[in-house]
Amino acid sequence: MKSYPKRESFKRFDNPERKKQGSFGCMAYLVFLIVSVFLVVKYGPVYTASSNFESDLKIAASRAGARFHDSETVAKEILTLAMRHEIPIERKNIKIQRNSGQIHINVNYTRSVNLLVYQHDLDFKVSASSLVGTL
Questions:
Q1: Quick check: is 4 in a domain?
Q2: Domain that residue 82 falls in
Q3: Which of 15-19, 50-54, 84-88 shows the lowest mean pLDDT across its residues?
Q4: Under 8 Å between Cβ of 72 and 98
Q5: Computed from CA positions of residues 24, 25, 29, 30, in that sequence, does the dihedral angle turn out positive or negative?
Q6: Can you say whether the dihedral through the CA atoms of 82, 83, 87, 90 is positive or negative?
Q7: Which of 36, 66, 30, 47 is nearest to 113 (CA)?
Q8: Are 106 and 126 in contact (CB under 8 A)?
Q9: Euclidean distance between CA atoms 133 and 33, whole angstroms
Q10: Is residue 78 part of a domain?
Q11: In total, how many domains does the chain have?
C-alpha cells in the first residue's frame, strides 16, 4: 500500500483565531435573521390589513356608485370595513366627494407599530373612485 505524505495546509483550520472569526460571522447572521423576522412579524399584519382594506374600499366605491348610495351610507359601510380589518378610523377621516358623475373616497389613518424600544407611526392614505350609475 502506498502512503501519502501529510499535507501541512490542513493545519490552518486548527487556528483558534480563525474559529473566533467564524463564530462572529455566524452570530452576526443570527442577529440579522432574528431582527428581520421580528420586523416582518410586527409590520406584516399592518401592511396586509391596509392592502385588504384598500381592495375592499374599491369594491365599496363601485357598489356605492352603482346603487346611488348617499354619503352617510357609504361612510357607515367604510367604517364597517375598517372595523373588520381592525383599522382605527373615525368618520372625520373619511372624505367623500361627488362630482361629474363620479364618487371619490379618500381615507386617511395612522397605525402604530410597537417595536419594544420605539413606537413607529405609519400614515396611510387610501383612495378609491367609481362612476355613478349602472351600465
A1: no
A2: 17-131
A3: 15-19
A4: no
A5: negative
A6: positive
A7: 47
A8: yes
A9: 52
A10: yes
A11: 1
